[in-house]
Write a structure and sequence with these properties.
single chain, alpha+beta, Bactericidal permeability-increasing protein, domain 1, 7-stranded mixed sheet, 8 helices, 26 strands, 21% helix, rod-shaped
């Protein structure tokens, strides 16, 4: 079997005269100094169903659609001047997949009546104030991040009939006002569409949310474990209005990584994100979860595996009293303190791996450190062979089930009504945990597990 670590100094082999027991003193491989571990970036695709309530649309639109919505002071063309003002907040409802709005208005008007006799104008004017309610219906679409609507008046309901008082009598002036309605009808429809477009611009909210989510999250203060999500592209389906809310499926193409050590930099640049239109969106998300296991805890668990067991050949046997683990040159050093026919410490190297069925870390390609093997060849050749090594390797394993649960718990707060910014909430669940790789630091082993699940981003209560 190939040796995995080359000794940097000659070993010292000491023999004792205490019966047949021999003492080995191999050179201890010094620990490495790996403090930062970065999980290799992989591209993931997150489905982010986004919803905005009709109540939020109503709230936002009323900020942009206020005051005078139409004014025409020229009476020469049609004998009427009108000033149309919104008098109260617009009320929105969802009806048959369309956005229905009721706008209360006040019409301040002037009408001119009379005639021209022999080139002489003989006119009089009267002012009037009228109240009305206009019902609009709007088709809803999403174009270039913004809500695009096509609005049309469904009904105009006068609180009282348009009329003026002349010589103590009321005279209807509907015939004068109705043609003018066509003018402000088109204007008020355009103004409402403009207000809706300005009010419901998804871009600032979504990009601000992405920027907040892209900030590295400290998932374990003890082990300085960080999770970072970096968005690269954003996709969106058509907006759909139903059940008192506008929904659309967004898809986030991103890289997700877990690092151990110093806080990683936030590399997200929201001004470079483009919104691309697509028809459908996958529902699942792939993320990575780090299960952290200290060498101290792992050593204790592996030591228990050796209790009550002897390893050897015939009368030559040893018992493992204690196991210590540490990292060096991206390999794991396993130190076994032994008593019996051989006293002292032997050193092994191995590559950690994961058993998905038993949820255990075990060690592949296990071999004696070269210095240890040389010492064994001189003092205990019977132990230097592969049979005992294989039996020892079978006991060098431990469960990381609890560590995986800790990793899931560390991510849970960011999937349970997590609000990266006011009015934006993230919910979801991760399952289907599959092992990816193990990385080694100076004080812990990090098992990286790929998880699949769903994430939902909801916009509720926009400011």
């Amino acid at each position: 079997m190939k040796t995995l670590l080359v000794s940097v100094a000659a070993s010292a082999v000491l023999l004792t005269g205490c019966g047949t027991a021999k003492k080995i003193a191999a050179l201890k491989p010094e620990p490495g100094n790996t403090t930062d571990v970065v999980y290799k970036q992989t591209t993931s695709f997150i489905s982010l169903p986004v919803s905005v309530t009709v109540a939020d649309i109503e709230n936002q639109t009323n900020k942009f659609f206020a005051g005078v919505v139409y004014e025409d002071n020229d009476m020469k063309a049609d004998d009427v001047a009108l000033k149309v003002t919104k008098t109260a907040p617009i009320k929105f409802t969802e009806k048959n997949g369309k956005l229905e709005s009721i706008v209360p208005i006040k019409v301040n008007g002037k009408v001119r009546y009379g005639s021209t006799v022999m080139g002489v104008e003989m006119y009089d004017t009267r002012e009037f104030d009228l109240n009305a309610k206009i019902t609009f219906s709007s088709d809803v679409k999403l174009t270039n991040w913004k809500l695009k609507t096509k609005t049309a008046i469904v009904e105009l309901e006068w609180i009282e009939s348009p009329s003026i008082t002349v010589a103590g009598k009321k005279m209807p002036v509907t015939y004068l006002i109705n043609p003018a309605i066509k003018l402000f009808k088109s204007r008020i429809e355009d103004e409402l569409d403009k207000a809706l477009s300005e009010a419901i611009d998804f871009k600032p909210q979504v990009l601000d949310a992405m920027e907040a989510m892209a900030k590295p999250i400290l998932t374990s203060e003890q082990y300085q474990t960080w999770f970072r999500l970096t968005p690269t592209e954003l996709y969106a389906t058509d907006a759909v209005l139903a059940k008192k809310q506008i929904t659309m499926n967004m898809g986030l193409k991103c890289t997700m990584e877990t690092t151990v050590g110093q806080q990683p930099k936030n590399t997200f640049k929201k001004d470079q994100v483009q919104l691309l239109a697509v028809k459908t969106m996958p529902e699942k998300v792939t993320a990575t979860v780090a299960a952290v296991s200290t060498y101290e805890n792992a050593s204790k668990m592996i030591t228990k595996n050796f209790q009550g067991q002897e390893f050897g050949d015939g009368k030559r046997k040893v018992t493992v009293q204690k196991v210590d683990l540490w990292a060096k040159d991206n390999k794991l050093i396993v130190a076994l303190d032994m008593t019996g026919s051989l006293n002292g410490t032997i050193y092994l190297t191995g590559i950690p791996n994961y058993n998905a069925v038993t949820k255990e870390i075990y060690f592949d390609q296990m071999d004696y450190v070269l210095d240890t093997k040389s010492a064994l060849m001189r003092t205990a050749n019977w132990m230097a062979g592969g049979i005992i090594l294989k039996k020892i390797q079978e006991n060098c394993r431990y469960s990381v089930k609890e560590n995986l649960e800790d990793g899931k718990k560390a991510m849970a707060p960011y999937l349970n009504n997590y609000s990266p910014m006011p009015g934006v909430f993230v919910n979801g669940a991760l399952d289907g945990f599959d092992f990816d790789k193990v990385e080694l630091t100076s004080n812990a082993m990090i098992a990286f597990i790929k998880a699949t699940g769903k994430i939902n981003l909801k916009v509720d209560g926009l400011k």
